[in-house]
Amino acid sequence: MVRVHSAGSIAEAELVRETLASAGHEVVLRGLSRPGLAGEIPIPDAVVDVWVPESEAEGARAVLAAVEARAHLEWVCARCSERNPASFETCWRCQSPLA
Fold first, then answer.
1. pLDDT tens digits along 26-79
2. Would residue 98 count as lying in a domain?
3. Is the predicted pLDDT of residue 23 greater than 80, yes or no?
4. Is residue 24 part of a domain?
5. What total of structural domains would you count in the chain?
């Protein structure tokens, strides 16, 4: 097994697990109790690690890189020219739908 991601919360780890599992990867989460220990243990150690089989590591990293790239995309509203995050389906300024 190879660690492909370290999540700062259980929720983030579950999102990553679900993303990788839906792409066909076998996923194991390790350290689910660590985030609750933040402050008792050093903050950098209070993470949940996401592991996949070594043979799937390259593919899993590619999936995560693609998700990260999409997270930074924007679209420009055709009506008011405002920039909006890719996750928005309507313009935050004028409420026009994504064209």
1. 999 999 988 888 888 887 888 999 999 999 999 999 999 998 887 778 999 999
2. no
3. yes
4. yes
5. 1
How far is CA 20 from each of CA 29, 46, 64, 72, rounded to the nearest angstrom?
12, 22, 8, 19
CA distance 15 to 48: 12
HEC readout, 9-25: CHHHHHHHHHHHHHCCC
Residue listed under structure tokens 């076998």: 26
Which range of residues forms the domain containing residue 31?
2-71
Question: Do 57 and 4 form a contact (C-beta atoms < 8 A)?
Answer: yes
Buried b (16+ CB within 10 A) or exposed e, 60-79: beebbeeeeeeeeeeeebee
